[in-house]
Design goal:
2 domains, 12 helices, Four Helix Bundle (Hemerythrin (Met), subunit A), 290 residues
């Protein structure tokens, strides 16, 4: 048991090293002038993981450094969102289209897909015009240099655990808000907190913490459910901007509403299981501090 617990000790320097790897991977993915959609998606994922690591280090680096670097990571990812969001909308449209074999619904969805593809191309053109990927990469390189200078060797180990406790608490609070008022905005905010939790727990997975793999899988599945719900909500909102009222739209809207209701029920059920513990108890189960 002592050996197992020793493996769970996670130093601030270890978290910082993981954060730097994610930032460097994001820079590598977008350093080109016109990276493909796959590289943009990879960069955004790496930056989300970096922000999860940064949340674990909030107490270790101090509030000012945390806020500064969190803003840099957020702003570096922001220009990439238009291209990625356009690609996700197109994927959502293709999913709905694949479930519709023939008839007026399919013809209308084909028309919508063409409009979404055009929107994706325009988003990519705007990204190239602004030279945004290189600007984001430059900001990330500068942030990486600052983070390498952090003196974390003497940081209290408990600061990392308090970071995990804060992330879990914020997830619980977001769940409570989503339960009370399940708007698309509140559900999306909850999803972001769930993603941060799952990504931050990866640090303990690498250190052989008991049971953490199952918790990460649960968080990932929950985030996927909430992500699909959000994609459908955005798709429905975009329909109003892409096309004039059409006789088939109410049927599509009803189908989306039914699917979202199913997804939300599953997500809330899974979320209540994931967030049933008190934050302090949850952290102790993953990483008991001797």
């Amino acid at each position: 048991m002592k050996r197992q617990r020793a493996n769970r000790i996670l130093q601030a320097t270890t978290v910082r090293d993981a954060l730097l790897r994610h930032v460097e991977a994001a820079v590598k993915a977008i350093h080109a002038h016109n990276p493909p959609d796959t590289q943009i998606h990879r960069a955004r994922k790496e930056l989300k993981r970096a922000r999860a690591n940064l949340r674990l280090l909030r107490d270790a680096v101090g509030k000012a450094a945390y806020i500064r670097e969190n803003v840099v990571l957020r702003d570096a990812a922001r220009p990439l969102s238009g291209v990625r969001d356009a690609a996700v909308l197109l994927e959502t449209g293709n999913t709905l289209l694949s479930a519709t074999r023939r008839g007026p619904r399919r013809r209308w969805l084909l028309k919508v897909r063409r409009a979404l593809e055009q929107a994706r191309l325009e988003a990519r053109a705007e990204l190239r015009r602004m030279n945004a990927t290189r600007a984001s990469a430059a900001c990330l390189v500068a942030a990486s240099a600052r983070m390498r200078r952090w003196r974390l060797e003497q940081a209290d180990m408990k600061s990392v655990y308090s970071g995990l406790q804060r992330i879990y608490r914020q997830g619980r609070e977001a769940l409570a808000i989503a339960c009370a008022n399940p708007t698309a905005e509140n559900l999306h905010e909850w999803r972001k907190q769930v993603k941060y939790l799952g990504q931050s727990m990866e640090m303990w997975k690498a250190h052989d913490a008991d049971g953490v793999t199952g918790l990460i899988k649960c968080a990932d599945k929950l985030a996927d459910l909430l992500g699909t719900d959000h994609d459908l909500a955005v798709f429905e909102e975009r329909l109003e901007k892409l096309d004039a009222p059409h006789p088939i739209r109410p049927a599509i809207t009803r189908a989306i509403a039914e699917r979202r209701c199913h997804l939300q029920n599953k997500a809330l059920k899974k979320g209540r299981r994931l967030f049933k513990a008190k934050p302090r108890s949850f952290v102790f189960e993953i990483a008991p501090q001797d």
